[in-house]
Amino acid sequence: MLPESANSQFLSEVSRASASCRIVAGSDIYDQYGAKLWARHQPVSQSLQQKLLDRKLKAPLEACLLAEDGVTTVHLYEHLTLLLDSAHALAPVILPYQRELLDHVRSLPLHPAAQLLLTIAHTNRPAAFAHAIEGMALAGAMALHGGYDRVRTRLAMLGGLLHDIGEMYIDPDYLEAGRPLDAEMFRYLATHPLLGAELIRSLMDYPPALWQGIAQHHERLCGTGYPAMCADKEVGELGRLLAVVDTTIGATHAADAPLQRASLALRMVPGEYDPVWVGLIARAAASVPIAAFMAYDGAEIEQARSSAQATIDRIRASQQRCVQLASDAGSSDMVRKISDRAAQLLARLDVAYRSSGISFAYPAETAEEMLEQLTVARELAVRLEKIRTESLWSTPGRTAMDEEKLVPVWQAMA
């Protein structure tokens, strides 16, 4: 259930967006005791933000507000057209379906609450809105490639468009790429799939498959995802698709990041993603020449190689520490459980690296080898950080003594 009090981060986002677009009360806003706080049609202002702080409401705020000049399917069509006309890394996947995507986007059902959240993202967080458009396009192209019918294709497009909508309730400072996270920060960030799912479930009249898929877009088929660590058949059809959508877009977010980087990221550790969708991205990536891609200078390449080797050393040292703790008679059951799972994940990552055939001992001689080195270096660092944060947050109830025992493991992975 959504909280009765308005989320402070959301309130701040609404107030900031209202300076650029017209957001009004779609209905009278009452507190839990029936006192009217804001009248229908009255524009949002900072005064509303002050009134609502720490007040429990009769109805969720998101259900009471309207963006009168906000994002519509016309805007989505225009932004999708711009994406299709650009030289984006996703082009090999989405361009074959551009006519169908443009036809579908005109008819996407935009619930007023979804429109409100997209409007705030468009106004306050342009990069997040661009991510949503890319997600919509890629999810739609994948659905069309998979032979989905009209209803399922549009549901996939809505999933791509709204999969990160829960991030509107997260402080943007926590979303900075590469920012190291402690346990509390990761727990906070890891709520966004569930927040987005709950918003859709509680406020919007979309099929359950949509919010269920959005809840699972960070899950992995091997059980190493979050927030619920679902595995295999526990991850639904849309969740599997959206996991590949989100990872692919994340791997190609830089201007000079080709689709091959996403293909390698998806295949880095076997069993994480649905092989049907991994195969689609891999085949599209293989059709793109990369000789002109590499714009990195020699110093940057050497830095990446050196950093990757240090990451590999940390993976192996951390694995040894975890194995020792898991077998230590002085460790509690909790410490053994955490250490054993971390050791398994680290071993799996080390095996994946060894199986990749990538070596950082020698400089790359071709553009393909250079790209592989840079991608594997990036993925190793990202996945080691993921294992570290999981070992911090996934098992509440640790004692102070448990924490003290685990500190060397976390330090080895940092």
TrEMBL record:
Segments passing through the bilayer: none
Q: List the Pfam families.
A: HD_5
- What InterPro entries does the database record attribute to this sequence? HD/PDEase_dom, HD_GYP_dom
Q: Spell out the protein name for this chain.
A: HD domain-containing protein
Q: Which SUPFAM superfamilies match?
A: HD-domain/PDEase-like
> What positions does the domain HD-GYP occupy?
106-297
The organism's superkingdom is given as Bacteria
